[in-house]
Amino acid sequence: MPGPLLETLRGATLFPRPVWLMRQAGRYLPEYRALRQEKGGFLELVYDSDAAAEITLQPIRRFGFDGAILFSDILIVPYAMGQRLEFLAGEGPSLSPRLAEAALDGLVANPSLLAPIYETVAKVRAQLGPETTLLGFAGSPWTVATYMVAGEGSRDQHVTREYAYRDPAAFQAIVDAIVAVTVDYLSGQIEAGAEAVQLFDSWAGSLSPAQFERWVIAPNAAIAAEIHRRHPGVPVIGFPKGAGEKLAAYARETGVDAVGVDETIDPLWAAQALPAGLPLQGNLDPLLLLAGGEELERQALRVLEAFAGRPHVFNLGHGIGQFTPIAHVERLLKVLRQWGR
After folding, report:
1. Model confidence over 245-276: pLDDT tens digits?
2. In a 3-state reduction of DSSP, which class is residue 195?
3. Dihedral sign, CA of 59, 134, 260, 13?
4. pLDDT score of 155
5. Which residues are annotated as catalytic?
6. Among 47, 48, 259, 315, which residue's beta carbon has the most beta carbons within 10 A?
7. Angle at CA of residue 256, ends 253 and 260, nearest 5°
8. How many domains does the structure of the chain reveal?
9. Domain range enclosing 193
């Protein structure tokens, strides 16, 4: 019997709503901080499958979320494609060589770097009850490409956007290569026990409509189609953060089974503008969860009521912040679990 999250992603309208939170396994949890201090850096945790499985399970034990999402990182894909990956203290991730200056065909791929991630998935699945859906994930090609080209994250993706305009054929080759590895990577996660997968497009909001069609919609549609071909019945969640009104085209054209809605989108607009019956996920502002109080409850209820007429997975509009109090998460869950009963 599938859990409520998996049922919802397959199109069921359930009450109370299933819930999980992006970045639910992370620095706001004291048990995570303790394990990270013991084990060392972020990448060391990702590649220690016992530690990564434990981190994935920590929020399930504490809160009883309906979904457990794999503890890993979107940059595992470029790492396996041959770029060097480092997480620098106070600076974030760094990839080298930057494809703004180096050739894609100069990279030496190492697919074995994906195997420990599959081990983590299998270990988590073995410890989860059937009521909890295990979610795998990958970064969407545009977002992954921004890191591969620029070597690091940026607020406006200037380097990568300019590169895509200047040499669209070369950039298309990068995106196509990411699509191919991502399909195999997600497929490996599913074979190891993931029951649904999410594509994170954290930087989708920086693109013009025409570029959004080419670099976000088209590659995500290719991934979703191939995952559906290889693994019929496994839902794909698409999350193009910052898409704004372009979210409607994304929902219609990518073929994903559910769409994540970020906190900048009015849930009433999303409920009306996105295809009827399509499961939606989101979209409470993470800062509301940080702030807490009565406004947290009011806005959580607003999200629930806006999406009451369709399949809905309650989530945040992006990842939970590291300073979010545990008590605020508990208060939110109390509201969610009482609503609709």
Report:
1. 999 999 999 999 999 999 999 999 999 999 99
2. coil
3. negative
4. 83
5. 23, 27, 36, 73, 147
6. 315
7. 105
8. 1
9. 4-338
